[in-house]
Specification:
2-enoyl-CoA Hydratase, Chain A, domain 1; 2 domains; Acetyl-coenzyme A carboxylase carboxyl transferase subunit alpha
Length: 321
């Protein structure tokens, strides 16, 4: 797949185009230009490292939405086996914006649930751009309850701009479905590992992100509202989204400092979309480590810590005047 470059990555794009041109010329040339190609590749890698070492929160939000970033189904295909997708909430309908089902992770049965955005236009519409309706959250809860019944650990992958705000969704109880998930996940008697792999948008993300371990990929985001939405409300224009992104504190390192997440997962140079295989390996190692740790911990301890984490969201301290 030909890489897609973001606006701030244009210097990298220009170098990569030169490399492609030289490769094309080399096929028809008697001259050996492999050294020049290698030099440009090294320069491109160094430039990528330099750019990504100083990304602003606004730029990180762009990377989190990159169209070639790995989605839930990509992780399912790469690090899980024997995945059997389960559909429907048993009340209204199935919601393709959330996928979930039973799978094996290193031979162990797990329940995997996550948002799915879609790649091309047709799939994006089918998946509603990764914005779940109430039936999606109720499907997720049904699968979690099934996992609890059989003592199976739960792994969730979060990547959504937010819950779908349509009239039909509101009529079917969008806020109730999200609130119910928070309530039930806080007391599920099985380990829950949550990982934000792209966008973590508001309650739409939190509805499958109450867990014993909350991880974030290095260039993912997690916030109560998108920077554009925040800017539109505060300043009546989305053009000040970069200011809003800075104020919201949406980045993984910032949220780790605030104690809202547990671990920041390093991504390949240039982001997860640049090297899916490397990202999958890093994800697999992390999940292995965390699952092994939870296997040796009493469920009562996990429940207590999980509830305390949920109750600590939004806590703040005022300095004495």
């Amino acid at each position: 797949m030909k890489p897609t470059f973001l606006d701030f990555e244009q210097p990298i794009a220009e170098l990569e185009n030169k490399i492609e041109e030289l490769r094309f010329v080399q096929d028809d040339s008697v001259l050996d230009i492999s050294e020049e190609i290698a030099r440009l590749q090294k320069k491109s890698l160094e430039l990528t490292k330099t750019l990504y070492a100083k990304l602003s929160p606004s730029q990180i939000s762009q990377v989190a939405r990159h169209p070639q970033r790995p989605y839930t189904l990509d992780y399912l295909r790469s690090i899980f086996t024997d995945f059997e997708e389960l559909h429907g909430d048993r009340s209204f309908a199935d919601d393709p914006a959330i996928v979930g089902g039973l799978a094996r992770f290193n031979g162990q049965s797990v329940m995997v649930i996550g948002h799915q955005k879609g790649r091309d236009t047709k799939e994006k519409i089918y998946r509603n751009f990764g914005m779940p309706r109430p039936e999606g959250y109720r499907k997720a809860l049904r699968l979690m309850k099934l996992a609890e019944k059989f003592g199976i650990p739960i792994m969730t992958f979060v990547d959504t701009p937010g819950a779908y705000p349509g009239i039909g969704a509101e009529e079917r109880g969008q806020s109730e479905a999200i609130g119910r998930n928070l309530y039930e996940m806080a007391r599920l008697r099985v380990p829950i590992i949550c990982t934000i792999i792209g966008e973590g948008g508001s309650g739409g993300a939190l509805a499958i992100a109450v867990g014993d371990q909350v991880n974030m990929l290095q260039y993912s985001t997690y916030s109560v509202i998108s920077p554009e939405g925040c800017a539109s409300i505060l300043w009546k224009t989305a053009e000040r989204a970069s200011e809003a992104a800075e104020a919201l504190g949406i980045t993984a390192n910032r949220l780790k400092t605030l104690g809202l997440i547990d671990r920041v997962v390093s991504e390949p140079v240039g982001g997860a979309h640049r090297d899916h295989a490397q990202m999958m390996n890093a994800m697999k190692r992390m999940l292995q480590e965390q699952l092994k740790d939870f296997a040796n911990r009493p469920i009562e301890v996990l429940l207590k810590e999980r509830f305390e984490r949920l109750m600590s969201y939004g806590r703040y301290k005022e300095d004495a005047a």
